[in-house]
Amino acid sequence: MQPPLPSPTASWHNDTYPAISPSRPELTAAGKTIVITGAGSGIGRETAIAYASAGAARLVLLGRTKAALEETASQLPDHVSKEVFAVDVTQEDALQRVAAEIRTWDVLILAAGYVTERSPIALASTDTWWQNFEA
Length: 135
What we know:
By secondary structure, this protein is of the alpha/beta class. It has 4 helices and 4 strands, in the order E-H-E-H-E-H-E-H. It has helices at 42-53, 66-74, 92-102, 126-134, and strands at residues 33-37, 58-63, 81-86, 107-110. Strands 3-2-1-4 form a 4-stranded parallel beta sheet, covered by helices on one side. The longest helix is centred in the middle third of the chain and has 12 residues, at 42-53.
């Protein structure tokens, strides 16, 4: 597939290629705990699959929708410990509760995003504006 827009990148990859293959020994995640926000779809889901391929021992999947997170978990090998947390990543207190339950981890992947409904800026609340800005 070619880039969807004009791209300054000379090589466009849509799959794992040798330089970033999770099977390379120096890229191993063996024995590690990986926490991924936005793990219910897109980049977050693909990141979980890649870390499972790289030997991660424990994948902690965070996202808004439990069903989507469980779909991601179902695509991971049985030997990987999987934990699912349906949580709003814009709520700091919720994230602190999850972090306390997880306890320790080796890698944190921030693949979640926050987008509000489209509206004229004059009609947007300042709370929503700051939430977009800080997310």
